[in-house]
Design goal:
The structure is a single chain. The protein is an all-beta fold and 115 residues long. Helices cover 0% and strands 56% of the residues. It is built from no helices and 11 strands. The strands form 2 sheets. Strands 2, 4, 5, 6, 9, 10 and 11 form a 7-stranded mixed sheet that branches. A hairpin with a 3-residue loop joins strand 5 and strand 6. The chain is globular.
Length: 115
């Protein structure tokens, strides 16, 4: 069974940085893509960043240039480095790992950007 455990969320001031981590406790073999989504209250879940086969990366327009998705295969972990954080980045962030057989989600971690 695949389990995703997220960490790294918290409260940060505007302009600050956070790094989210998502560790896959199951096998990392066969992963087609890893991604971060976020959802704020009353808003639709949105894709923040995606890392797929061939190391192709995609970012939401709102975070491009500020956020970076990366992975460490040895640690079975995907990261989201978030810099120059804005209040509108406040949301619950979810890790998503896609296998050919389906996808799995982390438990979510709260990111709050406020002065």
């Amino acid at each position: 069974q695949v389990q995703l455990v997220e960490s790294g969320g918290g409260l940060v001031q505007p302009g600050g940085s956070l790094r989210l981590s998502c560790t896959v406790s199951g096998s990392i073999f066969g992963i087609l893509a890893m991604a971060w989504y976020r959802q704020a209250p009353g808003l639709q879940r949105e894709l923040v960043a995606r890392l797929s086969s061939g190391t192709s990366m995609n970012y939401a327009d709102s975070v491009r240039g500020r956020f970076t998705i990366s992975r460490n295969n040895a640690k079975n972990t995907v990261y989201l480095q978030m810099n120059s954080l804005k209040p509108e980045d406040t949301a619950v962030y979810y890790c998503n790992v896609i296998y050919r057989s389906g996808d799995y989600w982390g438990q979510g971690t709260q990111v709050t950007v406020s002065s």
